[in-house]
Design a protein that fits this description.
- This protein is an alpha+beta fold.
- The protein is built from four helices and six strands, in the order H-H-E-E-E-H-E-H-E-E.
- A hairpin with a 4-residue loop joins strand 2 (49-58) and strand 3 (63-70).
- The structure holds coenzyme A.
Amino acid sequence: MYSAVAAEGLWIAAEAPVEQPSQRREAWCRTADDEAHGAWFLAHDGDTELVGYLAVIRGGAEHADFAMAVAATHRGRGVGGALLDAAVAWCRATALSKISCQVWPHNGAAVALYRSRGFLAEGRLRRHWRRRNGQLWDAIVMGLVLDEHSPGSGLTDAEMIR
Ligand SMILES: CC(C)(COP(=O)(O)OP(=O)(O)OC[C@H]1O[C@@H](n2cnc3c(N)ncnc32)[C@H](O)[C@@H]1OP(=O)(O)O)[C@@H](O)C(=O)NCCC(=O)NCCS
């Protein structure tokens, strides 16, 4: 499923072919598999067919990043929303203060999904990711703050660099 989404060429960071082992990818998968560091959320159609995944990885004590995809055959049916709702609930239950992700600026479906769950665009990483064809793609960082109650730095807007 992951290979098929990568082969679409437009939505996730991975590019086809993804069959060759990648130490970085394997390390990332293992990290999400370790309860102290992350969690996997999987959507199945019937007993066996995997039709969606979402992996959350804690980046620091209170922050997590995630990546997700739904099989092309199963999009637009609530699978992605259900995966993200489960992941956000897990982050809240784990007392994380924030969850965020990166999304390509052309990925309207993902941006709509994240916005529908309260995520805000926090900035744009310009020419940040090299693609195999040599192009450099921008990415938007989107975040959902889970702890709105702790105080901020206390500095005023006037004291911030613009
Ligand atoms: C982005 C993706 C995960 C969405 O999953 P999905 O199962 O199709 O989404 P859902 O059907 O659960 O829809 C969730 C919300 O997103 C919105 N949405 C989904 N697809 C949309 C589209 N093509 N255009 C506009 N809004 C869309 C829906 O309005 C919905 O809102 P609601 O829950 O308030 O009704 C899916 O399109 C996908 O896997 N794409 C390829 C991989 C990818 O882009 N991964 C994310 C990388 S950052």
